[in-house]
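My main concern about presentation is that the manuscript never shows what a single data entry looks like. In essence, backbone conformation is discretised, so a fold becomes a row of integers matching the chain in length. An entry of this sort, consisting of the sequence and the corresponding backbone structure tokens, reads as follows:
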Amino acid sequence: MKGFLLLTLSALFCWVSADIRCHHCNKVPVLGCIDRKSCLLEQGQQCVTTNVYLGKMWLYSKLRCGTREEPCMEAFNETIHKLGLNYNTTCCTKDSCNSLAPRATPGLALVFLTSFAGLGFWLLH
């Protein structure tokens, strides 16, 4: 009886874990997610979220499924010194566990909109 129960639970676990989906999105301030979709997670892989910051200001996020070619490798405060960018990469294995990333602050959205408007006026003159 214990063997049958173990076999049943193992089969159920394999069936459930085969359908894990991750968010797949490139997210930028003001515009939000570009090309939002979901991806089916390969067995043995993890969902990936990479957030890119300039100092403490969020610039960009990439959400995806890990693959054999590009598996998830967690990293916190990984820095590219020439550009001053910080990367945080997290991994997870539950259905839709990689969030849709941080939202831009209203002040940051205003700065971007004002900058684009100023650039537009400058180009027109």
Notes: The chain has a mean pLDDT of 79. Residues 21-115 form one domain. The longest helix spans residues 106-124. The first strand starts at residue 21 and ends at 28.
